């Protein structure tokens, strides 16, 4: 699915249910690959981690287009479960 600039606000958010630690995945799977370029939407903490990995020579920043996301912080799993149930009427115990 392609999104244009007008749709960005509809598909983005600042509330996160946990940290994915994407830069560690970049380090593991991209490493110092010279010909592979990617774009990634990252929160500030992920960008800082990515910079640290670059300082250590584990990733090549010139191969990563960073799209910055605003981060309102993370919430606890208990609060996340409550929000999902109330907002989306999802029975989380039935989700696999």
Report what the structure shows.
This protein is α+β, with helices and mostly antiparallel strands and 96 residues long. The chain has one domain (20-94). 38% of the residues lie in helices and 12% in strands. It has a two-stranded parallel sheet. Helix 3 links the parallel strand 1 (38-43) and strand 2 (64-69). The longest helix is centred in the middle third of the chain and has 12 residues, at 44-55. It is elongated, with a radius of gyration of 16 Å.
Helix content: 25-40%
Low-confidence stretches: none
Quick check: average pLDDT? 78
Q: How many helices does DSSP assign?
A: 4
Alpha-beta content class: alpha+beta
For the sheet with most strands, the description reads:
2 strands, parallel
- Tell me the strand percentage band: 5-15%
Order of helices and strands: HHEHEH
Into how many domains do the coordinates divide?
1
Q: Strand order, biggest sheet?
A: 1-2
Number of strands: 2
End-to-end CA span: 25 Å
User: Which term fits the overall shape?
Assistant: elongated
- If you compute it from the alpha carbons, what radius of gyration comes out, rounded to the nearest whole angstrom? 16 Å
């Amino acid at each position: 699915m392609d999104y244009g600039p007008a749709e960005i606000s509809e598909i983005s958010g600042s509330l996160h249910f946990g940290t994915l630690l994407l830069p560690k995945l970049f380090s593991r799977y991209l490493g110092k690959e010279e010909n592979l370029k990617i774009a990634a939407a990252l929160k500030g903490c992920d960008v800082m981690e990515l910079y640290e990995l670059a300082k250590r020579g584990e990733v090549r920043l010139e191969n990563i287009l960073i799209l910055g996301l605003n981060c309102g912080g993370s919430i606890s799993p208990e609060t996340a479960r409550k929000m999902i149930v109330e907002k989306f009427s999802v029975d989380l115990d039935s989700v696999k």
